[in-house]
Design a protein that fits this description.
- By secondary structure, this protein is α+β, with helices and mostly antiparallel strands.
- It is built from four helices and three strands.
- Strands 1-2-3 form a three-stranded antiparallel beta sheet, with no helix packed on it.
- A hairpin with a 2-residue loop joins β1 (64-69) and β2 (72-77).
- The radius of gyration is 19 Å and the shape is flat.
- The model has no long low-confidence stretch (mean pLDDT 85).
Length: 107
């Protein structure tokens, strides 16, 4: 049952499509990458106690914006919502820095 769910998830959640490799090393690499993606999904679901779709939906709401003004350019991440904060805490992932990059205008 779990194996069937894994294959179904690999086709649906990971959006796995037929890939035609000819070299054995590429086939092996492709299978390993798909397996690692499924493992990551299962770890997130187990640690967070939620579905992959819900976790992904919450994390996809995080955005980084680039802002330019007379004093320079900076990149800033949107503020974390309560569900995002809770999810990151359950997964043991540190919060992203608020300001990612700061480039003052040369004088």
């Amino acid at each position: 049952m779990l194996l069937e769910r894994g294959w179904r998830d690999m086709k649906q959640i990971i959006d796995l499509r037929p890939v035609y490799h000819r070299l054995e090393e590429r086939i092996r690499a492709h299978v390993i990458l798909c397996w690692l993606a499924l493992l990551l999904i299962r770890i997130v679901e187990t640690q967070a106690g939620t579905t992959w779709a819900q976790a992904r939906r919450e994390l996809q709401r995080l955005h980084a914006g680039t802002f330019t003004g007379p004093t320079g350019t900076f990149q800033q991440v949107t503020g974390l919502t309560k569900p995002q904060t809770d999810l990151l805490a359950k997964l043991g992932i540190p919060h992203p820095k608020q300001v990612l990059d700061l480039q003052p205008t040369p004088r």
